Amino acid sequence: MKQFSLLLIGMVFLIAGCSSIVIKPVFQTKEREEPVDYQVPYAVFPDNLLFLGLGDSLTVGVGDELKQDGYIGRVKQQLLQSEQIDEIDLINTAKRGRRSDQLMTLLSSGGLDKEIQEASHIYLSIGGNDVMKIIKRDLFSLQLEAFEEERENYETRYFHILHYIRDLNPQAPIIALGLYNPFSLITVESEEVESIITDWNTTMERQLMEFEGTCYVPVQDLFYTNANLVYHTDFFHPNAKGYELIANRMIRTMESCGFVEETNGELYVKGGESE
Question: Which residues form a coiled coil (predicted)?
Answer without folding.
Answer: none
